[in-house]
Amino acid sequence: YWIADAYTTSNRYPYSQPLQLDGGRINYIRNSVKAVVDAFNGTVTLYVADKEDPIIKTYEKMFPGSFSNLSQMPKDLASHIRYPEDIFTLQTYIYTIYHMDDPQIFYNKEDQWEIPSIPVQWETATETAPLMTPRHMIMKLPAEKNEEFILMLPFTPRGKDNLSAWMVARNDGANYGKLMIYRFPKQKLIF
Hints:
The protein is an alpha+beta fold. It is built from 4 helices and 11 strands; from the N terminus they run E-E-E-E-E-H-E-H-H-H-E-E-E-E-E. Strands 7, 8, 9, 10 and 11 form a 5-stranded antiparallel β-sheet that branches. A 4-stranded mixed β-sheet has the order 1-4-5-6, with helices on one face. A two-stranded antiparallel ribbon has the order 2-3. The longest helix is centred in the middle third of the chain and has 14 residues.
């Protein structure tokens, strides 16, 4: 079986930050469906992963019987569901600005973060270093008892090399889809 993430998107969601992607401009995206493809016969089963998404609710009404509830997915397949890197990348990008909760700091962008670039040796000085991409890893999160499979990306203060924070998307069991942010103290430099 192959498990593919399917998304619902819009460019008309009110009061939302627009992003320019390869497929156009969007300001709303959800990972509403997990599509399971049987590699032997090609049948596709669509499981609704986000019951609160208004777009997928509409599709369910338009195409009754086409979607199954995620709880109906066989347990051995459900254990392989992973938080989508695409959405996590967008969420971390937006969070570099919207983590500021003080209006004055937000307005002045005094505490803006960025996703670090990967230090590489370039042949010409005109090339820019690529941004770090989310990494899958197994680790024990602070205050947790066991290791788990996570998706992680660090943040640095804008224009600096020290860590500000890192964001984690959890993938295991009941914690699937929970995002956590770990902030580092501003008084201490952690490279």
